[in-house]
Amino acid sequence: MHKTAVAIRHVHFEDLGIFDAVLSDAGYAVRYHDLDADPFATLDPLEPDLLIVLGGPVGVYETEAYPYLAEECAILATRLAAARPTLGICLGAQQIAKALGADVGPMGHKEIGFGPLRLNDAGRVGPLRHLEGIPVLHWHGDAFQIPDTAENLASTPLCATQGFSLGHHVLALQFHPEVDVTAGIERWLTGHAAELAGAGIDPRVLRTHAAQVGPELREAGQKMLAEWLQGVV
After folding, report:
1. Mapped to the 3 state alphabet, what secondary structure does the chain carry?
2. pLDDT tens digits, one per residue of 140-170
3. Within 10 A of 215 (CB to CB), how many other CB atoms are there?
4. Residue 14 CA, distance from chain mean position
5. Contact of 192 with 176, CB cutoff 8 Å
6. Which residues neighbour 208 within 8 Å (Cβ) at sequence distance 6 or greater?
7. What pLDDT is recorded for position 49?
8. pTM of the model
9. Beta-strand pair 151-156/159-166
10. Spatial distance between the Cα atoms of 183 and 150, rounded to a whole number of angstroms
11. Where are the domains of the chain?
12. CATH assignment of 3-231?
């Protein structure tokens, strides 16, 4: 019997990417919960064996402009209180942090591009060890504080909080290991064109870096998720 995984997707091109095959291999039947297509009222916080909250170009504090963010955070709060397996990426990680009572806000600068993580001792003994020394994709201007009950895992020079875990059932990642850069990142470059222009970032540089790190990053990202799924309780 398949386990179920529901992925909340905020924008279509920020999908599961390389994680899709790993989830399938681990026995999960995956479905997306897309904004507009599916009201949050139809999503049972406790029903999926795994809930994944993906990224998006909004801030968790923008609930007046984007009311669904408050609904999403409430779903996460219920799920986390029940210790149900949950994975968050970028905005999803920030929403997990907020649901756990931690502060989330603007860093005052953007972190966009490829760069390695600085793993701490906790990060080196867990699934993130597969990413050590490999440039991963960063794309954010906000950052979370580490919740009191969670364990910090990694940092970068531009962001001190790149990931945290809570027991064996919650993993929150500020960076984007799910993106299949071997397939190109044109959807990302086009979808975030205004943000890139505002930050003075040349998309040609990102395109070149993606081609350089793609195969290695794909393999490492899939190993990371596979190991985490093996330990999920």
Report:
1. CCEEEEEEECCCCCCCCCHHHHHHHCCEEEEEEECCCCCHHHCCCCCCCEEEECCCCCCCCCCCCCCHHHHHHHHHHHHHHCCCCEEEECHHHHHHHHHCCCCEEEEEEEEEEEECCEECHHHHCCHHHHHCCCCEEEEEEEEECCCCCCEEEEEECCEEEEEEEECCCEEEECCECCCCHHHCCHHHHHHCHHHHHHHCCCHHHHHHHHHHHHHHHHHHHHHHHHHHHHHCC
2. 999 999 999 999 999 999 999 999 999 999 9
3. 11
4. 10
5. no
6. none
7. 98
8. 0.97
9. antiparallel
10. 34
11. 3-231
12. 3.40.50.880
Under the banding of pLDDT at 50, 70 and 90, the label for residue 1 is low
Cα 137 to Cα 59, 73, 180, distances in angstroms: 19, 25, 10
What's at 62, amino acid-wise?
E
The alpha carbon of 171 is separated from its chain's Cα centroid by a whole number of angstroms, namely: 9
Q: What are phi and psi of 9, to 5 degrees?
A: -115, 120
Alpha-carbon span 23 to 108, nearest angstrom: 35
Residue reference for tokens 């597969």: 130
